[in-house]
Amino acid sequence: MRFRFCGDLDCPDWVLAEMSTLARMSSVKMKLLCVQVIKDLLDEDIDYDKVSKLTSDAKFESGDIKASIAVLSFILSSAAKHDVDSESLSSELQQLGLPKEHTTGLCKSYEDKHGALQEKLREISLRLGRLEAVNWRVDYTLSSSELKQVNEPTVQLRLQAQDPETDSTQTTTVSITADKFRVLLTELKQAQTMMNALQ
Amino acid sequence: MLLVLSEEHKEHLGFLSEVDAPVVGEFGRIAVEFLKKGSNPKIFEGAARKLNVSSESVQHGVEGLMYLLTESSKLMISEVDFQDSVLVLGFSEELNELLLQLYLENRKEIRQILSKLAPSLPHYHNLEWRLDVQLASRALRQQVKPTVTLKLHLEDGAKRRAHVLQTDPATLQHLIHELERALAELKSNHCRRILRNIK
């Protein structure tokens, strides 16, 4: 059985198994749990005390609590990843055996935060060596030990980027003469035109 | 398979016959705690004061118990063998029974701890990927070149390293094909025969 929210693949067995665990909670409590799980996916702090209060009525053990958070996380992030609209999500979850009230609650939370979830997923997508800061300074060299009258402008450029393998910030400083800098600027402007054409 | 205890070990464990059964039970519990979380010398002082003996004998007793438990768990000796090995120490029936219970209850967990001590290669932690299309470069415009960028996170003990790799889709297909062949090898007759013979 292919499901859109699983990316047109089969639903994982563990998700199917946990549907019955979710059905043990009341639909109101499950909607509140969804809100907490979405907060966790958006990197805001999840309130574990609230979660344990919500699940205590259904007498969940710690394994059940972890399982229900995991399955809700999977469903919500996977649906956002494959850009599934909330009606298809609703019908697919009901096919998996989630009761109607639970499904409605879940899809309502999903619809509310659909945009925010996709933004967050876009942010955490793989990017190598992000540029963090650019600082520049223009100097004018008057003279040096080699030549008495130099009279040349230079640009000092400081780039702070993230190292792709260690994720720590690396600083690179370069000084560029006027001609080289003109070439650099032209090439970068051409790249920028191309990027704007794609927007 | 019988456990052969060295003279020194027997001497250290001999201390246990001089104290009451509940105290031995307490020592057993402390020994298991130390195996799980590391030893805490302060506990020896407290126990030594209460029993009116030197802290060194308490330390030897607990360490002797720890060694007995790890050696028995390591070799996975049966109940009968354990009882025969302990018989040589000349303890009372009650004490032998207590030690046997201690061994049987904690055997599985001690084996789990011991399994983590084996040397290991860096293993998989996480894989992030990204699909890009190169449209232009400084040297050539109007290109269409798809590439897949992978960031493989590996874990080696406490250290985490990330490897950044890049490939074109054809090589990626080949890689997937080779890995699927490796998995399929598990189902071949040769592998099945070997797995059947390992109990």
UniProtKB/TrEMBL annotation, chain A:
Pfam families the UniProt entry points to: COMM_domain, COMM_HN
All copies of domain COMM, residue ranges: 130-199
InterPro entries tied to this protein: COMM, COMMD4, COMMD4/6/7/8
UniProt xrefs under PANTHER family: COMM DOMAIN-CONTAINING PROTEIN 4 (PTHR16231:SF4), COMM DOMAIN-CONTAINING PROTEIN 4-8 FAMILY MEMBER (PTHR16231)
The name this protein goes by in its record: COMM domain-containing protein 4-like
Gene: LOC113066990
Automatic annotation (TrEMBL), chain B:
Domain COMM: 123-190
Alphabetical list of InterPro entries matching this protein: COMM, Commd2
Cross-referenced PROSITE patterns: COMM
One matching Pfam family: COMM_HN
Name of protein: COMM domain-containing protein 2
Organism in which the protein naturally occurs: Carassius auratus
Taxonomic lineage: Eukaryota, Metazoa, Chordata, Craniata, Vertebrata
Gene name of the encoded protein: commd2
